[in-house]
Design goal:
Length: 835
């Protein structure tokens, strides 16, 4: 049996490498964001004073305010060696490994979390944007007038489609823009993809699931009937009917909602040093899926997520949905072990400013927290004008004080609705009373101890010998109280479980306030307060800033501005995100960066035209997706053409369709689909909501939880998204980093993926289920092989494949040979590749 299984398994391994020539490396944006948010502020706060051009000091010959300075190092050698934590003397200095090399000098060692960030940054290659790139970049700050004239900050304009020589090729206006650029280079588009190839591409792009053999047969027959009558509207109607059916499917929202969840850095745990669960985060996940299925206009979608709590609601159901929507602002990773409440609050606001601006306008104003933006027209005043909006907002994220958490957070209570899922457990009335009594006892103990210490100090008595006991007792009270308060928050006075969610609300009107400008971003050096406002670059010269209400945060004004048709970026950015998901790369390849350090669009007039159309058609994502997938550009074959490749190896002119590796979730869902195991219903709640306790580190000790966090047959969008502990099926195939705004996932091809496909329990189970599905049908061996190919690849096997498969399956024990054969199909590059 082992001899029989080996050839197909080895074939699967070899096929893993076939995709490497097709995969496109996504820009390494995440590393730069990590540097800007977690590394640069540390260097500014702790190192610039003695090692920067700004301070005029270079002690030990070291400057750290440039990448070159860190790499060159000082008298002792390189401060940073990318990828090598041993040779990087910066780490030795901050870890205090050498007595004469302790940084910062004469101060306590940096917090463990900061040191861990530095180490992770160096391991990742020490990405640092403070260096000239290959393309010309601004050498100094862009002033406001330059910023207003920068391509992405000018209002989009829809011009007439360009003239083309072969007008018969185009089907949608966008096709003219693509064809015109090809004709300038004397290139032609590729021929249309075969019907089954187009259908497979469409199904994966719109629903994340493969077409069934029956769907494929019916679609191909309809295509052939339409073509028999010659070119005309019949084929276009057939394609449009198929697209509309898929757009109306619940699977569409699960696929496209997941794209936005990447951007929204959705996660069900905090991550970082205190990785505690967010057991109510799943409500936001379901809100997003429903919004895409309902085709909520994108401007309204943004308004709900940023300011849903401030909007009127017609009933309790709508009020609940609007509160859940604001979970967008509560999802971020937080420094829960931060001892300074002021620092925690400042970092929370910073994360929200960064997320909103990166996700919606693909520009991070948060880079101006410590200094004016180095390449884009954002000043520190712009940052703190936005910071005041979020400083006047209260964030509800729901982790309680314990040994891992110094910054507890409450949850928002939702209206009670019939049939709603409430994962938190109810308590018996006696249990509620006991918890309240325990809480009162702890509060009384704390008061008594504080009074005892105060009296002793007033009387001049020495209590130093009891100080450790007092400290232990204080910590016990602090941690115990946190758990009790967290539990009581989930139930009412009778012990009935309450519906809760993450989200935000405005602070009390008397606490709404502007934020002070912090020198170098340091909370201990506040300056003058900056009135809450929108970034100055988006105002005409001399135009006054919009006044924010005195009794509200200004989130509603911010959200309406972002969704305004006058905003130059929002529609462009979203259209580009849609384009990226359908073609594998955006018209602007740096989908999360429309600033000076990002790339310019390959087809600027097309991007503008689509942005204007998007707004004119009511900000409908479904309409924009429909427009693109019905284009002739999207219909092209992915076939390689040497003459076109020589002129345009990156395919920026779109002379063919780009072959793409399926996303991690789609690979898993496709395996479940072809095996017959897929449960297409929505999972109620989340596995995370069913865990006992809030520490992710304890999950491994829970025997009820699978080691790979994947015991579900539901779609992968419902798998738990725990920061730093993802399910194997997601982690292995380049799932988006859930702590960052991610509009563009990496695509890798590595040995761990091969091992997962050949040895993974999940893959083996789906292969066995596929075998059962095939063998239970009254078919011949050849017919079963054909059905397996149709299920896995949406095509028939060729004569050679059929002959080899039959020879293999006839040489050994039936069930084992069929299992090896089916697993080999699931492990091929063709299975996880879409042309």
């Amino acid at each position: 049996m082992r001899r029989n299984r080996l050839p197909f398994c080895l074939a699967a391994v070899s096929l893993l490498g076939q995709f490497s020539a097709c995969a496109d490396d996504a820009p390494a944006e995440g590393g730069v964001r990590f540097f800007e948010t977690r590394i640069r502020p540390v260097l500014v706060e702790h190192c610039y004073e003695c090692h920067s051009a700004e301070s005029g000091k270079a002690k030990g010959g070291l400057v750290v305010d440039t990448r070159e300075g860190l790499l060159h190092g000082g008298e002792g050698g390189a401060a940073v060696v990318p990828g090598d934590v041993v040779k990087s003397r910066l780490l030795a200095a901050v870890k205090h490994l050498e007595a004469d090399l302790e940084m910062p000098p004469k101060k306590p060692k940096l917090p463990a979390g900061v040191i861990a960030d530095l180490e992770a940054w160096i391991k990742a290659g020490a990405p640092d944007p403070r260096v000239a790139a290959a393309a010309p970049r601004p050498s100094s700050n862009m002033d406001l007038e330059e910023g207003r004239q920068f391509w992405s900050n000018r209002p989009p304009v829809m011009g007439a489609p360009p003239e083309v020589r072969d007008s018969s090729w185009q089907r949608q206006p966008l096709d003219a823009h693509i064809l015109a650029q090809l004709e300038i280079k004397n290139l032609s588009p590729s021929q249309d993809a075969r019907p089954a190839v187009w259908l497979r591409r469409l199904h994966f792009d719109l629903t994340g699931l493969p077409p069934s053999p029956d769907e494929t047969t019916a679609f191909v027959a309809g295509w052939q009937r339409a073509e028999a009558g010659g070119p005309g509207p019949e084929l276009e109607a057939h394609l449009a009917e198929t697209v509309d059916r898929l757009l109306a499917s619940p699977a569409y929202g699960e696929r496209w909602g997941r794209h936005w969840l990447d951007v929204a850095r959705f996660a069900e745990s905090n991550g970082r040093e205190s990785n505690l669960t967010f057991p109510h985060a799943w409500r936001y996940r379901d809100y997003v899926i429903d919004a895409f299925n309902g085709d909520v206009p994108f401007d309204r979608f943004l308004l709900e997520q940023i300011a849903g709590d401030l909007l009127p609601a017609a009933n309790d159901s709508e009020r609940s949905r609007l509160l859940i929507a604001t979970g967008f602002l509560a999802m971020g990773a937080k420094g829960l072990n931060e001892m300074s409440k002021a620092q925690f609050a400042a970092d929370l606001v910073d994360e929200q400013v960064d997320t909103v601006t990166r996700a919606i306008i693909a520009s991070s104003v948060a880079c101006a927290r410590c200094h004016d933006h180095k390449s884009d027209p954002y000043r520190m005043e712009d940052y703190y004008a936005l910071a005041g909006i979020f400083r006047s907002t209260r964030t509800f994220y729901g982790t309680w004080i314990d040994s891992e958490n110094n910054n507890g957070g409450e949850l928002l209570r939702l209206p009670s609705l019939p049939g709603q899922v409430i994962p938190n457990k109810a308590l018996r009335p006696g249990e509620v009373s006991k918890l309240k009594a325990d809480l009162a006892t702890l509060n009384r103990e704390e008061q008594e101890q504080n009074a005892m210490v105060k009296k002793a100090l007033e009387e001049g008595r020495d209590i130093s010998k009891d100080s450790f006991k007092f400290l232990q007792n204080a910590i016990r009270i602090y941690w115990s109280r946190g758990g009790i308060e967290g539990r009581l928050q989930t139930v009412d006075d009778s012990g009935r479980a309450l519906p809760l969610c993450m989200g935000v609300q405005d602070v009390a009107p008397d606490k709404v306030q502007d934020a002070p400008l912090l020198d170098r971003g340091d909370i201990s050096h506040p300056g003058e307060k900056v009135p809450r406002a929108l970034p100055a670059v988006f105002r005409e010269k001399g135009q006054p800033a919009q006044r924010m209400p005195g009794d509200q945060s200004g989130r509603q004004e911010l959200a309406r501005w972002l969704g305004s048709r006058d905003h130059p970026l929002t529609a462009r950015v979203m259209v580009n995100r849609i384009w990226r998901q359908l073609f594998g790369t955006g018209l602007v390849r740096t989908v999360d960066n429309f600033g000076a350090s990002g790339e310019v669009p390959s087809h600027p007039a097309l991007l503008d035209a689509l942005a204007v159309q998007f707004m004119q058609e009511g900000w409908s994502v479904k309409s924009m997706v429909r427009e693109i997938v019905l284009s002739r550009t999207y219909r092209q074959s992915a076939m390689y053409r040497a003459e076109a490749y020589d002129q345009d190896p990156d395919n920026r002119l779109l002379w063919r369709m780009r072959p793409r590796r399926l996303d991690a979730e789609v690979i898993r869902d496709a395996m479940l689909a072809v095996s017959g195991n897929l449960d297409r219903s929505r999972r109620r709640g989340s596995l995370v909501a069913e865990l006992d306790g809030q520490s992710v580190s304890l999950i491994g000790f829970n025997e009820k939880i699978p080691a790979d966090l994947d015991g579900s047959r539901h779609r992968s969008v419902y798998l738990p998204v725990l920061r730093d502990q993802l399910p194997d099926a997601l982690q292995t195939f380049d799932f988006a980093e859930p702590s960052l705004v991610s509009g563009d996932r990496d695509v890798t091809n590595n040995s761990l993926q091969a091992l997962y496909l050949l040895n993974g329990r999940f893959v083996r189970e789906q292969a066995e289920a596929l075998v059962s599905h095939l063998l239970q049908k009254p078919l011949s061996t050849g017919e079963r092989i054909r059905l397996a190919f149709q299920l896995c690849f949406t095509r028939e096997p060729d004569e050679t494949e059929l002959r080899l498969a039959q020879q293999y399956l006839e040489t050994g024990e039936e069930s084992e040979s069929w299992t090896a054969f089916c697993q080999s199909l699931l492990a091929t590059a063709e299975f996880r590749l879409v042309d």
